[in-house]
Amino acid sequence: QKKLLEVKGLRTYFHTFKGIVKAVDNVSFDIHEGEILGVVGESGGGKSITGFSVIGLIDEPGKIESGEILFQDQDLMKLSESQMNLIRGKEISMVFQDPMTSLNPVYTIGEQLEEMLLLHENLSKQQRRERCIQLLKDVGISNPESRLKNYPHQFSGGMRQRVVIAIALAAKPKLIIADEPTTALDVTIQAQILKLMKQLVKEQGCALMLITHDLAVVSEMADRVNVMYCGKIVESGYTEDIIQEHIHPYTEGLLDSIPDIDQEKERLKTIPGIVPNMFDLPKGCNFSPRCQYCQDICLEKEPELVHVGERHFVSCHFPLRKEAR
Ligand code: SF4
Ligand code: MG
After folding, report:
1. Boundaries of each ABC transporter domain copy (predicted)?
2. Of the ligands numbered here, which is closest to the C-alpha atom of 271?
3. Rounded CA separation 285/283 (Å)
4. Which of 12, 17, 160, 308 could covalently link to 24 via disulfide, CB atoms 3.0 to 4.6 Å apart?
């Protein structure tokens, strides 16, 4: 598969009166065409900021300090705001946690879908109407003809998120960045919408960067996973390798905190310790204050992200040995 997106050495910092937060600190990864990449970690790990950086939505006091964001071999950081506007929606679209942030309450769903098509596709009025109806059908909304005339508040939360997905898919983008797209919804609806998203992106050959704190979601959805902690990727690999052959202690901690569905009582363990203060990160490895495998060198030297297997990378001085697990 061809590389669709390649991020190299991305640093996105926030300059606040309390100091600098290195929200994304030297992050490199790629996404191939049609691939689903899960980006997972606790909040504050830099997942969302990575997504916003790719789509060029970093505002003051945030700033991309350095790096390259190559999308179809073109560096998005070198584009003007108006060039970037052409790419947003058409080539790369975004789905947020709260559908109301993407929908405009004063326009009907039909008007909002049609606007996407007007901006990015060259279709007649009749063709646009047919496409709108088809898009609503694709995301599982019944009576699409009459639903087009409804306003966002006339839909339930789950239905609204389906509409947002229809809008995100309208211009047939190459990449969708979805930031906790189902976190606000109840569990049954979450599962339905994730299944639908996976099916639609796979059908269209669209790549998906799925940002979530939920490793269970990632294991269902993603082809590959980036695990982020304190602004850095600590482990990256194929989903199967991350679930079964992970070697970073933080990945192990995240996996241990997934409730065990086989057991009668839900086992909800969290990783001991708290996420360090982003204004005052520890010297050496960021995970050291919480890591049960920490040794002296971890307190001194920051581990580098190294290649350990096919598309498998880890940054740890003492990666877990498979036989030890
Ligand atoms: Fe733990 Fe050391 Fe690895 Fe950091 S580098 S995760 S402290 S073993
Ligand atoms: Mg977030």
Report:
1. 5-255
2. 1
3. 6
4. 12
Ligand 1 probe mutation, 247, 285, 297, 305, most atoms within 8 A of CB: 285
Determine the structural domain holding residue 318 and report its residue range: 3-91+173-324
Which pTM was predicted?
Answer: 0.93
Long-range contact set of residues 75-84: C-beta below 8 Å, sequence gap at least 24: 81/56, 84/56
User: pLDDT (tens digit, 9 = 90+) per residue, 57-77?
Assistant: 999 999 999 999 999 999 999
CATH of the domain at 195: 3.40.50.300
The answer to the question of residue 196 being in a domain is yes
Dist CA 208 CA 211 (whole Å): 9
Amino acid 155: pLDDT: 95
Within a domain: 16? yes
Q: How many domains does the chain have?
A: 1
CA–centroid distance, 46 to ligand 2, in Å, is 7
> Mean of the per-residue pLDDT values for the chain?
92
* Ligand 1 atom closest to residue 249's alpha carbon, by position in its atom list: 6
- Helix (H) or strand (E) holding 234, with range, is strand 232-238
Answer yes or no: are the C-beta atoms of 171 and 116 closer than 8 Å: yes
Residues with CB under 6 A from ligand 1: 249, 285, 287-288, 291, 293-294, 298, 303, 316-318
**Using CA atoms, how far apart are residues 111 and 151, in angstroms rounded to an integer?**
9
